[in-house]
Amino acid sequence: VERFLLAILPQRYEDYALRIFEKTKHKIGLWLRVQVVLSLVIGVAVWIGMAILGVPYAFLLGVLASVFEIVPIVGPILAGGVAIVVALSQSFNLALYTLILFLVVQKIESQLFITLVMRQSIDIHPAVVLTALLAGSSLCGVVGIFLAVPVAVLLQEFVGDWTDQKKKRNQLV
Asked: Which pLDDT does position 103 carry in this prediction?
């Protein structure tokens, strides 16, 4: 990417573009690491919860929840749906308990992990992430979902840099 930027940009913009790119790359790397850890935490929580409830294939459902967690919004719904169907094959009450378990896990994830961990790691508000995901999915479907957060981080870096430069100019006046 650096070579591409150097090849296409005028020389006077190279340093600026590379600085923004490095900041964005760093934040996206942090975001990806947090997503992987979050995915593993959700997978383990679902596995333990399913095992406690006695749902068949608890480990596989935990792995599925972990993998699907990478796909924002839709992934947890699909994982929960599969787990509920598996639990429903045993009993309606087990399916209901499974639904409650998934709702609790997702609530804890959204309130604790997303709000605190994401904000601390990439310093981007969860509402911005959600808006970016919705816009990305509307504009480009599944590809847009995967590109939404990196694009939001890039835009945040541009806006942050622009406001920093403006503040510096205003202090000089």
From this structure: 94
Rounded to whole angstroms, the Cα distance separating 89 from 85 reads 6
11, two tokens: 């020389």
Residue 113 has pLDDT above 60, yes or no: yes
pTM of the model: 0.73
Helix spans in 54-173 (H)? 58-68, 74-88, 92-108, 119-122, 126-172
Query: Rounded distance, CA 162 to CA 84, Å?
Result: 48
Q: 163: which residues sit within 8 A by CB, 6+ positions away?
A: none
- 50's enclosing H/E stretch is helix 11-53
The Cα 35–Cα 109 span in angstroms is 11
Q: Is residue 68 a contact partner of residue 75, using CB atoms and an 8 Å limit?
A: yes
